[in-house]
Specification:
By secondary structure, this protein is α+β, with helices and mostly antiparallel strands. Helices cover about 35% and strands about 15% of the residues. The chain has ten helices and 14 strands. Strands 2-1-14-13-12-11-10-9 form an eight-stranded antiparallel beta sheet, sandwiched between helices. A two-stranded antiparallel ribbon has the order 3-4. Strands 5-8 form a two-stranded antiparallel ribbon. About 5% of the residues have low confidence. This is Beta-lactamase family protein. It holds the Pfam family Beta-lactamase.
Length: about 350
């Protein structure tokens, strides 16, 4: 939905700017009422999930819709835990930048600096290229739930063909982000999850984010639903091992979190407590154009777009066909954060952002 998003959003802003400047804009109370009405209707239409909308310092919406466990008649709420999919990548990217701040690596370092037996054609792939999906590595090399340890994953990756010469262009790669997860473990001496917990999540006040380390109460984790089927909880022992997912998913997706914790992450990014200004500039810089002739760029784990009024939009989505998640941060005058987490992937969940934006920025 990346390119569709920009097109629709630009139209909304042009429409907004074309209105009589002297016309009174709706106040936040009116917006809150409209948003509440919208989301109540979407729930009736079948939306399952939780939504957070924060504008300036006011939380306009932070509520749950539909069921987290239909069998037990348990409703979603702001503390419900969801699979956030590829939004995981922004945490992996932030961890790499934290390690750079700590002097343990540089984003300009090459793979062979940290890994053994790297084939010649892959030796000079840099951490920067992994972060920006410009390494040439394949998008994926196996099922998310295939049993594969570090050694097996590296063997699969190193034996696969490059799609193009490293640094040549953008091509989304889950494999690249899993390699970043391995580098986090190699350079920190901790597991991927332990490092993120100690250096990102707990300092941000996020105590219900992770794979296995949070003490999740099972009744707070949303079941995934699709086509009338209950797919159960995403961290089931049938799918993951004791430490979390295997390497086809680890570090590129599958993190569990809530709208409550994602709000805390947004607030942490507005300070220098976790990442300093230099690191945040790298995180949210327009490093590489996603598509020739397009307007969307990839930063480090974030899509970066700029609207005609100068507003910058930092966002990412993720999903696995059952769970679907979006996080948007509008900077400058708009100063708005929107988090949508759903345990029933659908057109309603994917397009809800457009309805929300049309109310907020009308």
């Amino acid at each position: 939905m990346k390119h569709t998003f920009l097109t629709v959003l630009v139209v909304l802003f042009i429409t907004s700017c074309s209105k009589d400047d002297e016309s009174p804009s709706p106040n936040e109370g009116s917006q809150k009422a409209q948003l509440t009405q919208l989301l109540d209707k979407k729930e009736v239409d079948g939306f399952y999930g939780s939504v957070l909308i924060k504008k300036d310092d006011e939380i306009l919406i932070n509520d749950g819709y539909g069921f987290k466990n239909l069998t037990e008649d348990q409703k979603n709420d702001p503390n419900t835990i969801f699979d956030i999919g590829s939004i995981t990548k922004q945490f992996t990217a932030a961890a790499i930048l934290k390690l750079e701040m700590q002097g343990k690596l540089s984003v300009e370092d090459s793979l062979h600096t940290y890994l053994e037996n790297v084939p010649i054609e892959k030796q000079n792939i840099t951490i920067h290229q992994l972060l920006t999906h410009s390494s040439g590595l394949l998008g994926s090399i196996g099922s998310d739930y295939e049993v594969v340890d570090t050694e097996m994953f590296l063997e699969q990756t190193f034996s696969s063909e490059l799609q193009f010469s490293p640094g040549e262009k953008y091509a989304y790669s889950n494999v690249g982000y899993s390699i970043l997860g391995i580098l986090i473990e190699k350079t920190s001496g901790q597991t991927y999850e332990e490092y993120l917990k100690d250096n990102l999540w707990l300092p941000a006040g996020m105590n219900k984010t992770g794979y296995r380390s949070p003490e999740f109460q099972s009744e707070n984790i949303a079941h995934g639903y699709q086509g009338g089927t209950d797919f159960g909880v995403p961290n089931s022992s049938d799918l993951w091992f004791d430490e979390g997912p295997y390497w086809h998913l680890k570090a590129n997706g599958g993190i569990l979190s809530s709208t409550r914790d994602m709000r805390k992450w947004h607030e942490a990014l507005n300070t220098n407590e976790i990442l300093n200004e230099e690191a945040k500039q790298k995180l949210l810089f327009k490093h590489i154009l996603e598509e020739a002739g397009g307007d969307s760029y990839y930063g480090y784990g974030w899509v970066i777009q700029e609207l005609e009024d100068g507003t910058k939009v930092h966002w990412h989505d993720g999903g696995n066909g059952v769970f679907y998640a979006q996080m948007f941060r509008f900077t400058e005058a708009q100063n708005t954060t929107i988090v949508i987490l759903s345990n029933q992937a659908s057109e309603i969940a994917e397009t809800l952002i457009f309805d929300i934006v049309s109310i907020l920025f009308e």
